[in-house]
Design brief:
The structure is a single chain. The chain has 1 helix and 2 strands. It has a two-stranded antiparallel sheet. The chain is of the alpha+beta class and 74 residues long. It is elongated, with a radius of gyration of 15 Å.
């Protein structure tokens, strides 16, 4: 299965930094963002009884492989 790494952006961080971090955490690959490719904005209804509307902004980046950051086996 193929999936794109994704995660939340900390308030003090920028989306590009979050994207680089998520790629490292989820794949073990160190990469550098070289271009912001596409974005998507949408609204959906949340789960639960309140069903609040949630506004989402999703950003995608083209990245260049730098190295692997795999942890050694224990």
């Amino acid at each position: 299965m193929l999936a794109l790494p994704k995660g939340l952006v900390d308030r003090a961080k920028k989306p590009q930094a979050a994207a680089v971090r998520e790629v490292r955490e989820e794949t073990g690959i160190v990469a550098e963002a070289i271009a912001n490719t596409i974005g998507n904005k949408y609204v959906y209804c949340g789960h639960g009884a309140d069903g609040k509307r949630v506004f989402k902004i999703v950003s995608f980046y083209l990245m260049r492989y730098v190295s692997e950051n795999r942890q050694p086996d224990s």
